[in-house]
Amino acid sequence: MIDAIGEFFRTRLQVRDDPLAVEESLRLAAAALLFETAMADYDLGDTEQATIHALVCSQFSLSDADSKALLALAETQAREATDLYGFTSLINQHWNEKDRLTLVDQMWRVVYADGRLDDHELHLMRKIQRLLHIPQKDFVAAKLRHKPN
Question: What is the pTM of this model?
């Protein structure tokens, strides 16, 4: 399994020459982070999965079939990943702060899809904030935007 994860990072997350391959890797990394968020409370519910599907389709303008294929791979990678650095380092290399803020905003939507904030979800979101270099004020604003009333 460790070999499979290593191969994933070599082939998917460190591709630099082909712009299409980089874009595909970024989509996969972002979707995997959305799954990491959904799984942080140890309950990947239907509402969270539907939210991730809608976000991925919308952000990346993918067909239903393409988004399902991406999400299946992203869920597998999220479950097999031993850390978040591979995903976040790729995103930091290629996305500007605005794009990273959009991702964090989407992650908050996934967190609150089930109507509550779990301690594990909050811990993960704080970790991702640091890894993606998101300013505290923007992090809190995104959180409050999606917090249920």
Answer: 0.84
